[in-house]
Amino acid sequence: VQLVESGGGLVQPGGSLRLSCAASGFTFSSYAMSWYRQAPGKERELVAGITSAGGSTNYADSVKGRFTISRDNAKNTVYLQMNTLKPEDTAVYYCRADFFTWDYWGQGTQVTVSS
Q1: What is the 3-state secondary structure (H, E, C) of 52-105?
Q2: In this predicted model, what pLDDT tens digit does every residue of 95-111 receive, in sequence order?
Q3: Tell me: the pLDDT tens digits for 23-35?
């Protein structure tokens, strides 16, 4: 099982990034997918989630209207489009796959929002 995040980097406030998480080793289309983030000295928090077929999404209040989660089950990939980024969005971003008792995490990708 592998979840490999990519797309992180340094961006100025107000900018955009698109994170990707490529999955392998399990039946991706059966799993709900989500993005979490962890800033230095803070607990890991849920950013956004999407159901297995992509029919329902949810977001943390802090990112509503700015971030969009999506998935392509044909490509075994989940995305996080992040717009109007703020310095407080700086964190390591992780993707997670879950299905009943099965729960997998990626290694994370750093997002830094700074001028």
Answers
A1: CCCCCEEECCCCCCCEEEEEECCCCEEEEEECCCCHHHCEEEEEEEEECCEEEE
A2: 999 999 899 999 999 99
A3: 999 999 999 999 9
